[in-house]
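Final report, closing paragraph on structural work. Over the funding period we assembled a curated collection of sequence-structure pairs, and we close with a single example.
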Amino acid sequence: MPKTTCRTFAQISIIVAMLLYPYFGSAQTTISGTVTDSIGALASVNILLKDKSDALVTYGFSNVNGSYAIEDIDSGTFVLEFSALGYHTKKLPINLTAEDKTVQFNVVLHEKAMALDEVFIAAEKPISVQKDTIRFKTKYFTNGTEQTVEELLEKIPGLNIDSDGKIKVGNQEIEKLMVDGDDFFEKGYKILSKNMPAYVIDEVEVLKNYSNNHLLKDVEDSDKVALNLKLDESAKRIWFGNIQTSLGNDNFYELKGNLMNFGKKNKYYFLTNLNSIGKDATGDIQNLINPYRLNDPGHIGDNQNANTLINLSETQLDFKKSRTNFNNAELVSLNAIFNPTEKLKIKALGFFNWDETNFYRKTTDVVYANGTDFINTEDYKLRKKAKTAFGKVDATYNISETEMLESTTKYNISTYQDGSNLVFNGLNTTENLNDKNTRFDQRINYTNKFKDKRVLLLTGRFIDENTPQNYSVNQFLFQDLFPDESTANNVKQYSASHMQFAGINAHVLDRKENENLFEIQLGNTFRKDKLNTAFSLYDENVLLEKPTGYQNRTMYTVNDLYLKSKYILDLNAFKIIGKLDLHQLFNGLENNEHSDNQRPFYVNPSL
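Its predicted structure, as stored:
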């Protein structure tokens, strides 16, 4: 090798080594110190280490000598928080670098005046950490004013609830919200958090590195988080619930009720929420009907939906939604979990929702331009009515400790009636849109953990969805397109979109002894879309014409035969992920009398 080449290679090696030194050479830090008050050492002080997003990183206590130590902390910016009953909480912002091996913080807590009617001495810890689970005893973080689970979770350190009710651990949304280890609503957990009473919750568990399939725990590469609500013993195996109602002027009202029984073998949860005060009792219903899980083993087709062409929606105003959203919502949900045998679990869910939303906007614009002035007035009203009936049955059969069969059957039927009325400078324009959605969804999944950290998943799924639409507008706004239609004064369009999806997937995950992960998938998915539309011109209620060239009879099919592979190289401080996907597509398009076919093959590598 020439000297110049050797010198260049050596320089590159030194640069690479310097770049990687922070990852391979960094040591984790230990934080230690003592906690005292004006008298002496303080024992059992809660010590929380939080990151910049207020998420809990780790936790510790001071011993009888007031000493504490928190180990194995990566570099970064944190807040070290000290709290104890009867003392003011103290927070210390700290910045740890890779060079910090041991840092020490000695703190002094100051007493806080408290009026105690009774004194209880409890040995339990408000927070405990065990591997990937953090447990919070709710009584140490609440004050009894919390009505719903959502209000309770707002008091738990590290949990954040946004304005739409989305629950996050730090900045990451949770995967699901369970009750005593059982999940009712999957990604539609807002139905539970916004309605279930808070007083029965004894503990909140934060589950890190969560797996939706328990046989994939410690095998799949998961950074998901989930919450589990543990009930107080007094609330188990009995019927209990609550009802809340209020009535105001102008027909504003709210009625909320819960009835439940969480037994050892069977669980029942019935809820209702009726209100006209703008409260969203369901969250995004689509998260319940078709939850989307990105790259979750055993799931295919989560992103498959029939498409619609037309939508009537209100514009966004610079006000809070609660001040502009006038609704009349009614929700009833019936849910049950049965365990007929030790190996079989069946979950049944029935969901009924009726909602009417009214939107109003009035504007007046005065325009002055180049010596000309004019006034535009606008009065806009929009009414949206939605009815949804949804049912789901989940069955899980544990064949053995290493084999499991799962089946999920869903059926949804929704109807939507939207109508708008716009009066612009005295000219009235009325639009009406009637939608319907019916969806059948069947998924079957087989899991076999044939070695300690090697798992095979076989998944099949079928979806059938219809979304017909009827649209009409009382104005003829297309004179430039149809100059010969001088008598047309309104327009109608009918469209019907029909989607079918079928897929099968075999997936092997192999976790190596060095914690590297190899994955390979072989599968085939097929999707067929049919779109039929009819565009018509009317004179009042008399059909004038269905213009040629403005009607559609289209069918599009995509068949994807694929092989996907992935290798994750785990280097502790960071990971290198290599992927290689091979796809053979068979596409077909039929549009009226025309048809076309394609058979592209492509390779998609990524690093």
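Residues 537 and 545 are 5 Å apart (CA to CA). The radius of gyration is 30 Å. We thank the funder for supporting this effort.
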